[in-house]
Automatic annotation (TrEMBL):
This is Cytochrome P450, E-class, group I. Heme binds at residue 449. The keyword S-adenosyl-L-methionine does not apply. One of its GO terms (molecular function) is iron ion binding. Gene3D superfamilies: Cytochrome P450. Pfam families: p450 (PF00067). The chain crosses the membrane at residues 12-30.
């Protein structure tokens, strides 16, 4: 160090070093400025970002709303940097159409996410698996074996029994004249329908709680939890140190043990059958066991991943949609009255509602579509990842770019929808709905949710019964009804919906 001091104190050297450092600083400032400039390098426009965190701070507690505000300023095709991950935000139906029609394969992959990797058996499910041959085969099984129209119709006895139980609970509570927690009932009923269809058993017991139900809710929380490795791939070890990976593994082991037990018990029961054939009341476990016997490549891990996929994809989304539907009807008495009149006219003096009755309820279907439009259960569709570099909207999108489609923003676009913030079911009476581009509640393209029919039938049947058997009274004014929301795997009401039921006699 002593030998270096004379050199360090040389005035000309100091000046040279200062000039060099200043030049270097200017160079990096110019480079960063260019990279942050709108539309630079023919990439999509980007909001300015901070060092290290990028644009993470701009997401807020309601990312779908924050991203729409940013898209209004920077465009419907917007590039952000969430930590170290380049992320494309698409907020236009026209751009979604371009992506799906011209580049669907390029946009069909999924990013590697820590929670999905652990909880879904190395992403052996359908929703989060990588695009490829396994995904195609697994999706085929879901569409043809689990979620076909024939299968949906076979499960009607489950829907009927669970909805009848729900109506009886409301009827018993109505005797007191006190408000009931409709949100709680609209969570338990769809969950029990889906659980019985998938596993052959109810998630919720008579007290409204169950071990598996609680574990499932924890898994849904895990899927939405912040993972350092998802935004900073080189820092995945931080998730281990802070206990996040340990929690995921603990929940996974509990889930895995439970599913193994269900499958093995069913396998033993199947072997003890005289002919081993599948009965008309077979649930998803029975069906997958039969498929496994026919197609040896389907392992037990594949089965468990698919079963979990079906449960996570169908529970909270159905209950959230049902809750928002009733919230909007209570907030709009005119629409409530019109929907009830239709349902009661179609059903007449019958003691129960048949699926054939639902097919005649055109206005109810419009009400459901309008609920989907204003309150998509997943306002940001599951993330995709580009497999190669591609051009969209005249902009270059690099390979390995994470992609979010903001369905919530698209479905409130004033350029597409008249009076987009208002609940007007009549807009769908003369409009043919394209579930690929107009309503994105079930996704779009190759990655579209295969459970569209299954989900729609459940929501329609629950809504029809609630509207037929009861009138509903709020404690306050309809316009004062709280519409606050909580962002999660699905967007739900922040505060439960409490309302007074008044039994109706046909």
């Amino acid at each position: 160090m002593a030998l270096m001091l004379p050199l360090l104190l040389n005035p000309s050297l100091v000046v040279s070093v200062c000039v060099f450092l200043a030049s270097l600083l200017i160079f990096f400032v110019i480079r960063i400025t260019r990279s942050l400039s709108v539309g630079g390098n023919n990439f999509a426009p980007s909001p300015p970002r901070l060092p290290l965190i990028g644009n993470l701070h701009q997401l807020g507690t309601h990312p779908h709303r924050s991203l729409r505000a940013l898209s209004n300023e920077y465009g419907a095709l917007m590039l952000m940097h969430l930590g170290r991950v380049p992320t494309l935000i698409i907020s236009s139906a026209d751009l979604v159409k371009e992506v799906i029609q011209n580049h669907d394969i390029v946009f069909s992959d999924r990013p590697d996410m820590t929670a999905c990797e652990i909880l879904f058996y190395g992403r052996k499910d359908v929703a989060f698996s990588s695009y490829g041959e396994y995904w195609r085969q697994a999706r085929k099984i879901c569409i043809l074996e689990l979620l076909s129209l024939k299968r949906v119709q076979q499960f009607h006895f489950v829907r009927e029994e669970e909805v009848t139980l729900c109506m009886n609970k409301i009827r018993n509570a109505a005797r007191s004249g006190e408000p009931v927690n409709l949100s709680e009932l609209l969570l338990a009923t769809p969950n029990n329908i889906i659980s019985r269809c998938i596993l052959g058993q109810r998630v919720e017991d008579e007290s409204g709680r169950s071990w598996f139900g609680e574990l499932s809710r924890q898994i849904m929380i895990d899927l939405m939890a912040f993972s350092m490795g998802d935004f900073y791939p080189s820092l995945r070890w931080v998730d281990v140190l802070r206990g996040f990976v340990g929690r995921l593994n603990s929940n996974f082991r509990a889930l895995d043990t439970f599913l193994d037990q269900v499958i093995e018990e069913r396998r033993a029961a199947t072997k003890s059958d005289v002919d081993g054939t599948e009965n008309v009341k077979a649930d998803f476990v029975d069906i997958l066991l039969r498929v496994q016997r026919e197609e040896k490549k389907l392992t037990q891990d594949h089965m468990k991943a698919i079963l979990l996929d079906m449960f996570v994809g169908g529970t909270d989304t159905t209950s959230a949609s049902s809750e928002w539907l009733m919230t909007e009807l209570l907030r709009n008495p005119r629409v409530m009255k019109k929907a009830q009149e239709e349902v009661r006219k179609v059903v007449g003096n019958k003691k129960k509602i048949e699926m054939s009755d639902i097919n005649k309820m055109d206005y109810l279907k419009c009400v459901i579509k309008e609920t989907f439009r204003l309150h998509p259960s997943a306002p940001l569709l599951l993330p995709r990842e580009t497999s190669t570099s591609v051009k969209v909207g005249g902009r270059q999108i690099p390979a390995k770019t994470r992609v979010f489609i903001n369905a919530w923003a698209i479905q409130r676009d004033p350029n597409v929808w008249e009076r987009p913030e208002e609940f007007i079911p009549e807009r769908f009476e003369k409009k043919t709905v394209d579930f690929n581009f107009d309503l994105l509640v079930f996704g779009c393209g190759r990655r579209k949710c295969p459970g569209l029919t299954f989900g729609m039938v459940n929501i329609e049947y629950i809504a029809a019964n609630i509207l037929f058997w009861f009138d509903w009274k709020l404690s306050g004014k309809p316009e004062d009804l709280d519409m606050s929301e909580v962002y999660g795997l699905s967007v739900t009401k922040k505060n439960a919906l409490h309302v007074v039921p008044i039994p109706y006699s046909p």
